[in-house]
Structures are given as structure tokens and as C-alpha cells.
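Side project, low priority. Logging it here so it doesn't get lost.
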Amino acid sequence: MSGTLTVFVRSPDTRSERRFDPHLTIAQLKAKLELITGIPVPNQSISLLNSESDEQVLAKLDDDSRPIGFYGVRDFQVLNVVDTNPSTSFTGQLTDVSQVEKFELSEAEYERRQDSVLAYKQRHQLGRFAPKDATTKPEAETPPEVINSIKVGSRCQVESSEEDLHKRGTVRYVGETKFATGVWVGVEFDEPFGKNDGSVKGERYFECRQNYGVFVRPNKVQVGDFPVEEIDFDDEEM
């Protein structure tokens, strides 16, 4: 047994693609998973699922002395991590907004504010406030060969205006949409940098977790070998 295993790690608050040495013991794996999922080692219950689309439980990784490879883990299977005592670690509460008090602002009050996105667009003549002769269409500027090179399932990096921030993910959709004209690329980010869950205005184009999905123009997408940027864990420091 050699090399590394590429698997998806899933917990109530996280989802990411990770690489692990198959010789790691389950105890060592749990130490790494605590930093990834936030679930304390004693609370972790790890199940091996066949894939993200197949929830069949293949094994319970419950023997801390066994290596990962003992359980026959294969690339792109899922390690589903459950918190057996969430009351002590607040697992799942990061995504529960039912108890959050909502701030509401009337449309008239919003329009009067000078620190809003609306005011910014008005000052800079953007969007619907642009001059009527501003007819530049981003989709028309993207050559067909660029669009054709973007395939569903490809790893990619999306252009970001923030310095040193690499928004990486996987292409999940390429084509026309109902929310705007032209070709759009649907991307599932590795981290919650997105704006949706793969649906816009009630129309679903692909499936992902809330705030992990985004739609961008093809000229904003660079396809290539963009691995998930991981925390560098040193086995000797565990």
C-alpha cells in the first residue's frame, strides 16, 4: 500500500476534499479530523460511505489502532464524521440560523442610506444605473474555444478581486440560465465563498451546500490542476 488516498470529509458544518496516508491509524486520523471538522476526538463517529451520491455505509472506522487502509478505503469515497455529543462542541449550530434575530430594513430606508450597495451603484453608474449606451456584454467577449474548454467536473480557480485569495472549486454546470442571458459557469467552491446552493430564483442547475455555489462568466474561470488548499498537518506534532 503506497501513495495517498483522496477522500471527501463530511461533517455537520464542513465538507472538503482531503488526502491522507493509508498507513495512518484511526487515532491519528481523528486528530487530523478534529482540526478539519471541529469535532473533538472522543466525540467522533466515522462512517465510510461509497460516494456522495451513494449513502451506503460500507464500514465503521471504530478501531483506533487500525490503519485507514485496513478498512479498504478507496479514492473519492466519503468519510462521514458525526458528533456523538454536539452539546459540548456546538456542532451543527454554525448552520442553524433559526434562532438568529433578523435585521429588517424597509425599501425606502434602504434607498436613503449612503453606505449601501445601491448607493455605490448609483454613484458609479453600474448595473441598471449604467448609461443607456453601455451595451458591453461580457459573454460576447469570451471566445467559443474558452467556453468549450470548461468541462463539468474539472477543477478550477475563479478570478478574485481580493489579493492572495484563491477561490478554488469544481465546475458543476456550463450553459445558459434563466436568470441572465449568455453562458454561465456554475462552480462549487471548496470553501463557503459562494452565494447559493446551485440554484437561482427557484431554478436548480446543480447541487451543493448553501454558500458554496456561484455562477460566473467563463472568462472568470481558469481550469487546471488546482488541488484543495489544505492545512499542513505534521504527523510528528500530533
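Brief comment: The CA atoms of residues 43 and 84 lie 5 Å apart.
Revisit when time allows.
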